[in-house]
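FORM 12-B: Structure-to-Sequence Request
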């Protein structure tokens, strides 16, 4: 009887340890797996338009398109979630709109060049 009780206790402890390890792994991986899932939006983010220092800025977050006075400003998203622009690629900004405002500050009265055609 004693050997049978030892086996039962050992089996119980083994199962309990396995369940605890599985629960701990699941708890650790849940935030990672949620972050990898694409966010679902019911409607696209609205187009942001404003006049800043006399320049018309439009930002379309759905297409990641930024325009200053109708001319495209190349904006890139960095790995940390911030943005940089082709006008000032040494500093990061929290939003594409902030990057566009900084580009306007840098450009002054100069217009953005029209995008050159891509060769392909």
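FORM 12-B RESPONSE
SEQUENCE OUT:
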């Amino acid at each position: 009887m004693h050997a049978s009780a030892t086996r039962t206790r050992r089996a119980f402890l083994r199962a309990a340890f396995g369940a605890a390890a599985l629960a701990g792994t699941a708890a650790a991986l849940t935030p990672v797996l949620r972050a990898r899932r694409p966010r679902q939006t019911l409607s696209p983010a609205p187009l942001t338009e404003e006049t800043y220092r006399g320049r018309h800025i439009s930002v379309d977050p759905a297409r990641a398109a930024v325009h200053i006075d109708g001319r495209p400003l190349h904006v890139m998203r960095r790995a940390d979630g911030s943005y940089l622009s082709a006008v000032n690629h040494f500093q990061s900004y929290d939003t594409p709109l902030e990057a566009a405002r900084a580009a306007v500050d840098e450009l002054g009265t100069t217009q953005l060049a029209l995008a050159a055609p891509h060769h392909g």
